[in-house]
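User: I'm putting together notes for a lab meeting next week and I want to include a structural view of one of the chains we've been expressing. I don't have a solved structure, so I'd like a prediction I can at least talk through. The sequence is below, exactly as it appears in our construct file.
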Amino acid sequence: MSLKMKTCRKGERGVAMLIALLSLVLLAIIGLGFMFMADTENSVNNNYKDAQKAYFASRAGLENVRLLLTPPNPGAGVPAGPLYNQVSNLTMPNAAANTGVIYVENPTGAGDVINPTSGATGTANTPTLNPTLDDELCHEQFGLLVLASPGAGAPCLGNTQVMSQAQNYYQLPTPALPANTIVNTLPFKWVRITNKQNFMGLAGAKVDAAQAPGNQVCWNGSQEIVAPPGGCGANANPVWLLTSLAVTPGAGANAGSRRFTQMEVAITPPLYPPGTISTQAPVNLHGTYSLQSYDNCSCKQTTVNGNTVWVPRSAGATCNQNAHVIYTGGSISTQGSSGTVMSNYGNSATSASVQNVNPWPFDVNNLINQYKNGAINASTSPAYNYSCTGTPNFTATPPVYASCGLQTSQGFGGFPPGLPDNNAFPTGTGPQTTYIPGSVKLTSDANGSGILIVDGDLEINGGFNFYGLVLVRGQVSFSGGGSNNVNLYGSILAGQDVLANDTSMTDSFGGSINFKYDRCALALTAPTGPPNLIATHELMY
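Assistant: Thanks for the context. Below is the predicted structure for the 541-residue chain, given as structure tokens.
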């Protein structure tokens, strides 16, 4: 080997080490990059998990408070929820009165300070310093609270946008929720309860464009309506706006997640159909029948100067005479002349009735779905064990119903024996909601009270004695009054899955029947359980 070659090789010494060191540095950088990416992904996952925990905790707060608003149902042995009486007296929110806003607080322990009504101003109102502050209320834009809204995308801050603690605008019911002494309690901090107003906050819309922004929103069982504050009346109930804040615990310098959700709830009022017989299909009356639309609960018949008149049943009360004998989406036909009609609107079936109602105001499908929840199902309850066969198809023309066969001597709840002057139930008995999931034929003096739901056609002969509402999806055939003087106190409401002018689907009534309209009986139709959920959403601002 020449001297020149030896010299070149000596110059290459250390290159391998340099390459190795550069490779190690590169690998270290790649490793650190992967570690950073993994740490970032973990942070993102943890933030998402924390946010979801706050969201579902906020929703849980709404459901907790909705349960506390359960109205009493003495007939079913259901007491009022702890918040029902207080919320029933809510006025519209007002900065000068503590009857319009309720905060239901949910501390997770003695050291958990909740303050939705901090009176601080400026930067002290930032959620970082007070994560439980109600910095959403100004977005509702209740006129009597006189709060300025910062617009979409910003919380309520400053003394013009956040209520002062010194103002007497809220209540804190104590205790409303069970005492929480464990650290893993759901982290919703409070639920605010107010009446809903006509103006839709940041959305800038109204429930009813013709009504004033601060008017009260009410629920009539099928839709929201607007009335003057406190003016929902006997056939509707206030819509309550529940707003829930959840805050998860922070970690170090990082604050926890805050999520707001909102729910609109209302107690569904009793269903008072406008007629003793209310049916979307045409109606045929035949044979002997007696139909009364004077309210049996508030009116009684007497004779004055030889004339029959209807007067209040008790002194100082009012005789309700607003119902019709028949209220139908079709027409009325009669066979024979042996029927008796008693109504404020006339003494014949046609003069005392309303025909060809269009559009039909009742969604019978929705009503059945609403009332059957919690009802006694006649096909699964041991008390009945109906064997219902077939698969229903409500969208077919004509519709197809399951068949629950012939049932004799059925009892659907207790019956008040002291009618018409005493509607008290015997000890141990009371009204019930019964659901029959198909067409049925009832014979041999069926009886009961409450709500009888027939998810198909109903045929009755050989007697019937019921106190309440009979709700039928399909066709009704009632013949043979049986041994009872009065077959129905209350009302019958039937829908129709085909056109009302289809005479093949006419509802038929006759054969010595006796129906009396009765609002006391229909008052039993208020659904049991917590208020009805109308709408729910998350608040993003």
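A couple of points you could mention at the meeting. The chain has six helices and 28 strands. The CA atoms of residues 208 and 301 lie 41 Å apart.

User: Perfect, that's what I needed.
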